[in-house]
Design goal:
The protein is α/β, with parallel strands linked by helices. The protein has eight helices and 14 strands.
Length: 298
């Protein structure tokens, strides 16, 4: 079995490869990673011991010529490459559209030219649902309210065009937890970094707004468990727990008892979103953050 992973040299890609090796290492002959290394994630190349061959190409998913070459002989495609949401979203609108929508379109066009790809697994986001104080599931309406979420929903529409193979769309919650390719700007990871080095965390808004969360290793397992399900096209939400930002701050404070917390712009309304937890998976946030703390150098 040959697998191609777009955006595979980053935070999620690292844990996906670990999960692939753990569950299917002996049946995978080769994994092809394509990534533009926008985050300079060079630790990806030094920390993994795998049972299968891995090749890497620095390439853009908007490059249809190279995509056609990379997909030759590939059985499974994981599409992780994306422009990720951040605090400067207003200046990133075009970048979201180019990568998350048109990049996915280019990939789908190349996949449709191949005769070997049997499964495509796309990492999307629960942000496509917008806001909700009620628990949502996969049948809930999608009402994205940010440029990032709109672009990811458009990416889902591109994946739905696939006719020659089956596909899975995984709508992930906020991902947290340690690995060598750590993404520091996600809310839990940011809290941990600030707690460790500044002994204070800043909470946007009142902190009562909820988010859906999933551990980095768990999302790797969820992605892998869709590998061999070839019978139907499926959308699945990947959230193990819903927490308010204040809930998370309280857990972090149990780990750092002298921690100071500050609310910023707490008079402004903030987006809240709760999603039904995925069955068959569980995370222990406090235990995982205690282990996270042990990974800091000093």
């Amino acid at each position: 079995m040959t697998i191609l992973i777009t955006g595979g040299a980053g935070y999620v890609g690292f844990s996906l490869l670990k999960s692939l090796n753990k569950k299917h290492g002996k049946s995978i002959s080769k994994v092809i990673i394509i990534d533009i290394l926008s985050k300079n994630t060079n630790l990806f190349f030094t920390r993994l011991n795998l049972d299968f061959e891995v090749t890497f190409a620095k390439a853009n998913i908007l490059d249809n010529y190279n995509l056609d070459l990379f997909l030759d002989g590939v059985d499974i495609v994981y599409h992780l490459a994306a422009r990720v949401n951040n605090s400067s979203e207003l200046i990133e609108v075009n970048s979201f559209e180019n990568t998350n929508n048109w990049g996915t379109s280019t990939l789908v066009n190349s996949i449709e030219k191949t005769s070997t790809v049997i499964k495509v697994i796309y990492l999307s986001t629960i942000s496509v649902y917008g806001n909700s104080e009620e628990l949502l599931d996969e049948t809930s309406p999608t009402i994205p309210n940010s440029a990032y979420a709109i672009s990811k929903l458009k990416g889902e529409s591109q994946i739905r065009r696939i006719k020659k193979s089956s596909f899975s769309i995984i709508r992930s919650g906020n991902i947290y937890g340690h690995n060598p390719c750590l993404r520091i700007n996600s809310v839990v990871n940011k809290f941990m970094f600030e707690a460790q080095y500044y002994n204070r965390i800043n909470i946007e808004g009142s902190g009562n707004q909820y988010r859906g969360f999933i551990n980095i290793n768990t999302i790797g397992d969820v992605l892998v468990n869709h590998l061999l399900n070839l019978e139907e096209n499926k959308i699945e939400n990947a959230v193990t727990d819903n927490y308010s930002l204040n809930n998370i701050a309280e857990i972090v404070k149990e780990i750092y008892p002298s921690l100071e917390t500050y609310h910023i712009n707490n008079h402004l309304p903030r987006r809240s979103l709760k999603v039904n937890p995925i069955s068959g998976y569980s995370d222990n946030l406090k235990l995982e953050l205690e282990n996270f703390k042990k990974q800091f150098t000093f």
